[in-house]
Amino acid sequence: MTRTISATTAMAGLLFASGAMAQQPPDQNAQGPAPTPPPPDQNPAAPTAAPATMQPVTVTGSRPSEDFQTTRGSIFRMGAENLMDVPQTVIVINRALMNSQAATTLDQAVRNVPGVTIGSAEGGTIGNNINLNGFSARTDIYLDGMRDRAQYYRDTFALEAIEVLMGPSSMLFGRGSTGGVINQVTKKPGLKQATELSGQVTTNGLIRSTADVNTPFGENNAARVNGMFQWGKATTIDNTNVLDFGLAPSVKLGIGTPTEITLGAILQHRKDQVNYGVPPLNGFPINVPRNVNYGLSDDYTEQDVIQLNATVEHKFNPNFRARNQSEFLWVNTSVRQTSGAFVGTLGSNFGFVQATNGPGNTPYSGAPLNQLYIRQISRDRNINDITFENQSELEAKFKTGEFGHLLLMGVDLNYESYTNKTYTRNGSCNGIALVAGSVGCTPAGYTVGGGTPGNSPEIPGNYASSSAWGFGAYFNDTIEVTPWLKLVAGLRWDVYGAQVGNSINSANTVGNTTTPYLFQTDFFTSKRGGVIIEPTRQQSYYVSYSTSFNPSLEQLTSTTGTQTLPPENNEGFEAGAKYEFLNGNLSLNGAIFQITKYNARTQNADGTFTPTGTVQVQGARVGAAGRITPEWQVFGGYAYLNARIIQGITNIGGVGNTTGNVPLNTPKDSGNIWTTYTIKDTYEIGGGMFYVGQRYANNQNTVQVPEYFRFDATAAYKAPTWELRANVFNVFNTMYYDSLMASDGGRAVPGTGLTGLLTFTYRM
Questions:
Q1: Residue 718, exposed/middle/buried by CB under 10 A (0-12, 13-18, 19+)?
Q2: Is the Cα torsion angle 689, 690, 695, 698 positive or negative in sign?
Q3: Where is this region: Disordered (predicted)?
Q4: Which strand (E) or helix (H) includes residue 97?
């Protein structure tokens, strides 16, 4: 199962990234060549007695490539490019904000969205695991509007922006989207020659370079290539080395003409060491030094990604256009994972003895930290994810009497397949055999120094194989009743069929809850409705209602539960307001909302599931983005989430009862602020704060993770063709927990300590 990267491959990636490419946002206003001027008038009018007086014109604005504010979206099916016309909260993290914060991963970028928390990879959910408004968004990540469901870690080197649409949105996107969707917007070719090279180095020893070349050819065509290479220690935590490189070529034909064709690809290879956190003790993450990592030195997460896409858009006239987009995505993930799962001591024979609470569930107090040990478990696997998807969409603008219409219609087709071969490594603690799947034991306060013990062979486990297909058809009409009143209404019909097979219990033995084979087809109708009131172009008030659904086999993974389960049904209500101030340079928004999940799947004591749960989140959010003055800009927000499991597990005796609890990884309060000030267009200073309130690491609410404030800072010197920027992360070296997972009772992953980063960018 072990896979290696040769020195030749690594050197090729370094040479490629250092001198081959550049990174420059495309010209957003490029629309092809200027039109041919009309012939001169053969019969000019006679001159008037006096020439007309030219009125003075004042043009104001700022450099769009450096603005944190984004007022227009890229998602075709939202029904409006202007975000003021969307009856839901949409938060956009653009390239300028990511550059200012030196955010290089999807997780780092979406921390700018209040209400977002990060879950760590585990078991069958390797890669980015993001919670949005208290609900998992693992399968609600998109790439240019196409579902990006595979399990891998996403980089920002090829992204122009990240759009987060809040609330249930199955009418727009099909299954999923309970808390919303996260859409990654890739960089597109434009008709402006642009080259940008950048290099980064951190105090941890990470070296990273990105590059991008945008080259027009012909009158209406352009090509663009983005590249990335990084190597070194990613955080202040031990055993977190990475070796990653990627390439994202794209071509756009017919720019500014009625028919535009875009072809693109994202190719990545990653070989990372991932930290899986620390286990709990007495209801909190065990209090050990931040740098401790219970993984082994030969652990790795190796991923190969091939994403291909093609888009054809044709404008028949200004009021009618069609679009077709296709995507192929293949991701292979090979993982050797060792986690610190359980706390204990060494018994009289020096074997591992797990710590347990005392009578009456009193806290464990059997030994000081220097006598505690951690039992390490293995969750090795090899995963293959494949997705084919096609979208066909039409947009028509027309009038019926006095009413204007913006009608969207679309059809989605998709096929997905998934395989997961698991392995375990069985070892011992001081020569005493451990339970199956456990690799060894290690002192709680120290990082493991070596690799997998020689007496821990890798043993094959379950082989899961699954596939699914889906079909969806929808329409959405935005009706302009008056210039200040718009109504939004939409319907979507979906059919989703999936089959899951497991090699375990292939004989379907009575009493064994592992599912050898399961097939299910779900039908669902999604709805969307809204009212938008816009007294002026600078203000918008709205109310909306939307639904979504989650099939039980949506993630194509299932090893327990012998019965088919109905889809989880979700509905959301939202009321909000959006404003633009200071000549449109500053955007403010606020909303109150309620999201409820019905038929939520709850796990029983025997490992099976029942669709009896109900989870509800009531909340409010506010946000701001833009310039207060031409020199001073800001991006920030706050979210309040009142989340409860209204109906959960109610086992006999109340053991494991979750009714009334707070869903895992859902803080009541979270917020962020990022601001910069530029002096004489040359010097920039700034920084910000990220706050996440107290959370629980499991739905039983038995492991509590404390709140944290993290402060970052930045400073830059800007010349016409180059820029030198310094970023400092976690300025006060705060001890905090970055991501959580429910495995093994609830584990927490510490965030990085004080880290400095220097970025040099050259443009030509």
A1: middle
A2: negative
A3: 23-50
A4: helix 95-101
Runs of H (alpha helix) within 103-149: 106-110
Strands 116-119 and 737-741 come out as: parallel
Task: Report d(CA 67, CA 332) in Å as an integer.
Answer: 37
Sole residue written with tokens 């944290």 = 708
Whole-angstrom Cα distance, residue 210 to residue 227?
6
550 in a domain, yes or no?
A: yes
Q: Which residues of 257-296 are buried (b: 16+ CB within 10 A; e: fewer)?
A: beebbbbbbbbbbbbbbbbbbbbbbebbbbebebbbbbbb
Contacts of 494 (CB under 8 A, 6+ apart): 170, 174, 175, 470, 471, 472, 522, 523, 524, 525, 526, 549
Specify whether the CB–CB gap between 115 and 622 falls below 8 A. Answer: no
- Count CA atoms within 13 Å of residue 144 on its CB side: 26
- Please tell me what DSSP assigns to residue 189: -
> ∠ CA 109-104-229 to the nearest 5 degrees?
160
- Give 276's contacts (C-beta < 8 A, 6+ positions apart): 120, 121, 122, 294, 295, 337, 338, 339, 340, 741, 747, 749
As to burial, measured by CB atoms within 10 angstroms (0-12 exposed, 13-18 middle, 19+ buried), residue 463 is middle
Cα–Cα distance between 379 and 163 in angstroms, integer?
A: 33
CA gap 207, 13 in Å, rounded: 12
Q: State how far the Cα of 341 lies from the Cα of 443, in Å rounded to an integer.
A: 13
pLDDT for 458 equals: 86
Distances 531 to 168, 192, 425, 536, 574 between C-alpha atoms, Å: 17, 40, 57, 15, 11
Q: Taking the C-alpha atoms of 286, 291, 292 and 293 in order, what is their torsion angle to the nearest 10 degrees?
A: 120
The strand pairing partners of 432, in sequence order, are: 429
Q: Would you say 172 and 78 are in contact if contact means Cβ atoms under 8 Å apart?
A: yes
Q: What is the pLDDT of residues 350-390, one digit of tens each?
A: 899 998 876 666 777 778 888 999 999 998 999 999 999 99
Cβ atoms of 21 and 226 within 8 Å: the answer is yes
CA distances from 677 to 71, 515, 629, 680 (A): 21, 58, 9, 10
Q: What's this model's pTM, rounded to 2 decimal places? A: 0.88
Report helix, strand or coil for 615: strand
- pLDDT(474) > 80: yes
pLDDT higher than threshold 60 for residue 532: yes
Contact (Cβ atoms closer than 8 angstroms) between residue 204 and residue 236: yes
d(CA 182, CA 111): 12
Going by their DSSP bridges, the two strands 683-692 and 708-718 should be labelled as: antiparallel
- Tell me, rounded to whole angstroms, the distance of Cα 233 from its chain centroid: 23
Number of structural domains the chain divides into: 1
**What is the mean predicted confidence (pLDDT) over 329-334?**
96
Domain membership of residue 40 (yes or no) is no
Domain range spanning residue 561? Answer: 66-384+414-763
pLDDT tens digits along 202-236:
999 999 999 999 999 999 999 999 999 999 999 99
Q: Does some domain include residue 507?
A: yes
Rounded CA-CA distance 279/743 in Å is 9
Task: Identify the CATH number of the domain in which residue 729 sits.
Answer: 2.40.170.20
Q: Which two tokens stand for residue 614?
A: 């109900």
